[in-house]
Design brief:
Radius of gyration: 13 Å
Number of strands: 11
Helix content: under 10%
Largest sheet: 7 strands, mixed
Structural class: mainly beta
Distance between the termini: 40 Å
Number of helices: 0
Length: 110
Amino acid sequence: QVRLVESGGGLVQAGGSLRLSCAASGSIFGINAMGWYRQAPGKQRELVADITSGGRTNYADSVKGRFTISRDNGKNWHLQMNSLKPEDTAVYYCWGWGFWGQGTQVTVSS
Protein backbone atom coordinates (compact mmCIF):
# COMPACT_ATOMS: atom_id res chain seq x y z
CA GLN A 1 0.00 0.00 0.00
CA VAL A 2 1.23 3.49 -0.92
CA ARG A 3 -0.09 6.74 0.51
CA LEU A 4 0.31 9.99 -1.41
CA VAL A 5 -0.32 13.38 0.16
CA GLU A 6 -0.43 16.59 -1.86
CA SER A 7 0.18 20.08 -0.54
CA GLY A 8 0.58 23.59 -1.88
CA GLY A 9 -2.74 24.32 -3.54
CA GLY A 10 -4.64 27.54 -3.03
CA LEU A 11 -6.04 30.68 -4.57
CA VAL A 12 -3.86 32.85 -6.80
CA GLN A 13 -4.41 35.64 -9.30
CA ALA A 14 -3.83 35.10 -12.98
CA GLY A 15 -0.15 35.40 -13.78
CA GLY A 16 0.86 34.14 -10.36
CA SER A 17 2.68 31.01 -9.27
CA LEU A 18 2.10 28.01 -7.05
CA ARG A 19 4.23 25.02 -6.15
CA LEU A 20 2.55 21.70 -5.48
CA SER A 21 4.28 18.92 -3.61
CA CYS A 22 3.53 15.23 -3.23
CA ALA A 23 4.93 13.06 -0.47
CA ALA A 24 4.77 9.29 -0.72
CA SER A 25 4.92 6.78 2.10
CA GLY A 26 4.32 3.08 2.52
CA SER A 27 5.57 0.11 0.51
CA ILE A 28 7.86 1.94 -1.86
CA PHE A 29 10.77 0.25 -3.56
CA GLY A 30 13.03 2.25 -5.83
CA ILE A 31 12.21 5.15 -8.10
CA ASN A 32 9.11 4.86 -10.25
CA ALA A 33 7.26 7.01 -12.73
CA MET A 34 5.37 9.84 -11.02
CA GLY A 35 2.86 12.30 -12.32
CA TRP A 36 0.42 15.14 -11.82
CA TYR A 37 -3.14 15.12 -13.14
CA ARG A 38 -5.97 17.60 -12.81
CA GLN A 39 -9.73 17.56 -13.00
CA ALA A 40 -11.82 20.66 -13.58
CA PRO A 41 -15.57 20.72 -12.81
CA GLY A 42 -17.52 18.84 -15.46
CA LYS A 43 -14.37 17.58 -17.18
CA GLN A 44 -12.39 14.35 -17.21
CA ARG A 45 -9.18 13.96 -15.30
CA GLU A 46 -6.23 14.80 -17.54
CA LEU A 47 -2.49 14.40 -17.42
CA VAL A 48 -0.61 17.59 -16.60
CA ALA A 49 2.95 16.29 -16.39
CA ASP A 50 4.86 13.16 -15.57
CA ILE A 51 8.43 12.06 -15.02
CA THR A 52 9.79 8.61 -15.75
CA SER A 53 12.05 6.62 -13.46
CA GLY A 54 14.91 7.74 -15.68
CA GLY A 55 14.01 11.40 -15.30
CA ARG A 56 12.41 12.06 -18.67
CA THR A 57 9.57 14.57 -18.42
CA ASN A 58 6.37 14.94 -20.39
CA TYR A 59 3.87 17.82 -20.36
CA ALA A 60 0.40 18.54 -21.63
CA ASP A 61 0.52 21.07 -24.45
CA SER A 62 -1.56 23.49 -22.39
CA VAL A 63 1.10 23.80 -19.69
CA LYS A 64 4.36 23.52 -21.65
CA GLY A 65 6.71 26.36 -20.84
CA ARG A 66 4.75 27.29 -17.72
CA PHE A 67 4.82 24.19 -15.49
CA THR A 68 7.82 22.15 -14.37
CA ILE A 69 7.74 18.73 -12.74
CA SER A 70 10.67 17.74 -10.56
CA ARG A 71 11.64 15.01 -8.13
CA ASP A 72 13.70 15.24 -4.95
CA ASN A 73 14.11 11.53 -4.49
CA GLY A 74 12.01 8.42 -4.86
CA LYS A 75 9.34 9.68 -2.49
CA ASN A 76 8.80 13.39 -3.12
CA TRP A 77 7.99 15.28 -6.28
CA HIS A 78 6.74 18.73 -7.16
CA LEU A 79 4.92 20.76 -9.76
CA GLN A 80 6.06 24.36 -10.17
CA MET A 81 3.27 26.31 -11.84
CA ASN A 82 4.06 29.76 -13.26
CA SER A 83 2.03 32.19 -15.32
CA LEU A 84 -1.16 30.62 -14.08
CA LYS A 85 -4.36 31.12 -16.03
CA PRO A 86 -8.01 30.85 -14.94
CA GLU A 87 -8.30 27.72 -17.10
CA ASP A 88 -5.73 26.04 -14.85
CA THR A 89 -8.34 26.00 -12.08
CA ALA A 90 -8.90 22.38 -11.06
CA VAL A 91 -8.27 19.78 -8.39
CA TYR A 92 -4.72 18.53 -8.87
CA TYR A 93 -3.81 14.93 -8.06
CA CYS A 94 -0.44 13.28 -7.77
CA TRP A 95 0.00 9.73 -9.01
CA GLY A 96 2.60 7.07 -8.41
CA TRP A 97 2.89 3.28 -8.09
CA GLY A 98 -0.70 3.01 -9.28
CA PHE A 99 -2.01 5.10 -6.40
CA TRP A 100 -3.62 8.54 -6.26
CA GLY A 101 -3.41 11.33 -3.73
CA GLN A 102 -6.52 12.92 -2.31
CA GLY A 103 -6.19 16.03 -4.47
CA THR A 104 -5.51 19.69 -3.79
CA GLN A 105 -7.57 22.58 -5.11
CA VAL A 106 -5.95 25.20 -7.30
CA THR A 107 -8.05 28.25 -8.11
CA VAL A 108 -6.82 30.99 -10.43
CA SER A 109 -8.81 34.20 -10.42
CA SER A 110 -8.93 36.54 -13.40
